Amino acid sequence: MTKTLSDPIQLIYAGGTFGSYGRPLAPLSAEVFLPTLQKLLADQDNAINLPKISWLDNPLIKDSSQLTPSDFTHFYQLLLTAYAQGDKRFVVITGTDTLSYLGAFLAEAFAGSDICVVVTGSMRPLLDSENLHAYSIDAHSDAWDNLNEALKLAAAGEAGVKISFGGEAWPAQTVQKIHSHDLMAFTGHARAAYPANSYIKNLSDIRRQHWLDDRQEILSSIQSRAHYARVHALYCLPNDVEVITQQLQALLSQQPCGIILLGFGAGNIPYSKALADTLELAHEKGHMVICASQCPFGGVSDNYAAGSWQYDHHVIAGGRLTIPAIYARLLWLLLRYDTPARRRQRWLNSINQTGTTIKKR
Questions:
Q1: Can you say whether residue 276 is alpha, beta or left, with left for phi > 0 and alpha for psi between -120 and 50 degrees?
Q2: Which of 58, 156, 240, 317 is deepest in the core (most CB within 10 A)?
Q3: Does the pLDDT of residue 116 top 90, yes or no?
Q4: Residues 352, 303: contact at Cβ < 8 Å?
Q5: Are 291 and 266 in contact (CB under 8 A)?
Q6: Does the structure show a pLDDT above 50 at 184?
Q7: Are 172 and 164 in contact (CB under 8 A)?
Q8: Ramachandran angles phi, psi of 280, nearest 5°
Q9: Residue 161 CA neighbour count, 13 Å, CB half
Q10: What local confidence, expressed as pLDDT, does residue 303 receive?
Q11: What is the b/e burial string over 19-46, where b = at least 16 CB atoms within 10 angstroms of the residue's CB?
Q12: CA torsion, points 167, 170, 12, 136, in degrees to nearest 10?
């Protein structure tokens, strides 16, 4: 039976700085941290008028820098199971190192549904490590405010996957970490297309069940592929073009994978016939090569000959997508579809919906 907006928000704790404590800082075990957090939430002022909060049992709690494709699939399954049982509003607390990657992956994975997922974390631990006699909120931490903002956003129940951090919230696919220490560590924007525009405000029970049937039918395949799915990043530097050619050639013997070419500026990549031939061979072997920019903003374009040549050799432009969003889409396609042709077709269909497609000349 479909649940309503009066039902609880489901909270998932996945680790990270948020739950660290002591000198030196180290994550508290879930057995210690979760009851402490539950008590703090129960004791807080009810003026913010939040629904009841429930907790999804999550055995996978680790530093977010250690997350793998199998871990991403774990969180997908956890949310999918709860969603199938009628829950629709979730808050995920995770570490900031891969927060934008996990958020973007969940956005891809739940595209076309009416689920509401808000991902958050903190740059400073929730608990005051100076207080060794009792667990208390650190007044200088961003954790408590980030959590409450995420809960309020989840309470509104708007369909989609968002990241809430530092008093702002954005569609997950647009978010990237831009500072390693500052409390305003993330940024994003609201000019989001797919997958954000695929979420449906009021999905009928029949359509939701069809969506669920499709995802549950392929869940075991997704879990299996997660063990060997790989996304690689090749970062262009002012080296001889032979360097990046050799790096790409080293991947050709692997099973089909995702490859992100991080070009200069608007996606400029040094040219050589050997690199062009290697890109052709990568395509023949089923690899998906996506061009992205090393710049944090602006994305790629084909305005410069120094970059446009690659698109004649089966490279796909990443448009304005962030690096986390490109990684997330590549990973989801590797997990979701069983052939390189279907993955490529789905990517092109998705990128067309952003309005930033670079057409082959």
A1: alpha
A2: 317
A3: yes
A4: no
A5: no
A6: yes
A7: no
A8: -60, -45
A9: 28
A10: 81
A11: bbbeeeeebbebeebbebbeebeeeeee
A12: -10
Q: Is-contact 230 254, C-beta < 8 A?
A: yes
* 88 burial type by CB count under 10 A (0-12 exposed, 13-18 middle, 19+ buried): buried
Q: Is 66 left (phi over 0), alpha (psi -120 to 50) or beta?
A: alpha
**How far is the C-alpha of 203 from the C-alpha of 208, rounded, in Å?**
6
> Scanning the structure block, which residue is given the tokens 């509003």?
89
Find tokens 């040094």 and name the residue: 270
Handedness of CA 56, 59, 62, 66 (dihedral sign): negative
In which band, very low, low, confident or very high, does the pLDDT at 314 lie, cut at 50, 70 and 90?
very high
Q: For 44-71, write each residue's pLDDT tens digit.
A: 755 456 778 899 999 999 889 999 999 9
Q: Which of 186, 306, 173, 176 is nearest to 236 (CA)?
A: 306
Q: What is d(CA 243, CA 101) in angstroms, rounded to the nearest whole number?
A: 28
Cis check for the bond before 8: say yes or no (omega within 30 of 0): no
Contact of 77 with 113, CB cutoff 8 Å = no
Are 307 and 300 in contact, with CB atoms under 8 Å apart? yes
- For residue 235, what are the β-bridge partners? 262
The rounded distance, in Å, linking the Cα atoms of 99 and 91 is 13
All residues at 6 or more sequence positions from 320 whose CB lies less than 8 Å from its CB, including other chains: 298, 299, 354, 356
Residue 265 and residue 296 in contact, taking contact as beta carbons nearer than 8 Å: no
- Positive or negative, the CA dihedral 71, 172, 161, 33 is positive
Identify the bridge partners of residue 292 per DSSP, sorted by sequence position: 262
Neighbour count for residue 156 (Cβ, 10 Å)? 10
pLDDT at 358 (0 to 100): 42
Dist CA 148 CA 156 (whole Å): 13
Pick from 139, 136, 143: which is nearest to 183 by CA? Answer: 143
